[in-house]
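Re: that chain you flagged

S.,

Sorry for the slow reply, it's been a week of failed gels. I finally had a moment to sit down with the sequence you sent. For the record, here it is as I used it:
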Amino acid sequence: MSLDPATVRRIARLARIGIDESDLHALQGELNGILGWIEQLNEVDIDGVEPMVGTGHAALRMREDVVTDGAARDAVLSNAPDAAGPFYTVPKVVE
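Prediction finished late last night. Pasting the structure tokens below so you have them in one place:
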């Protein structure tokens, strides 16, 4: 399937995209390329392939629900512009 300039203008108008006439041919080429990829996907034989509806069958690793400090406090505070002890120091924003 190949799009002509009139169809590209119509698609742009429906999508409320303003395009210049100078950009029309570039956009036409991009859209034709996308449609070409879709045509390639339509040629794939998917007989006997069950659709994937989610990852519900995947087993998740479980860990204990324990509160930690992340074991990286010093590394995190090293990125702070100013720190006071184990805390970030920020300018006062409320008077």
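What I noticed first: Helices lie at 5-14, 21-42, 73-77.

Talk soon,
D.
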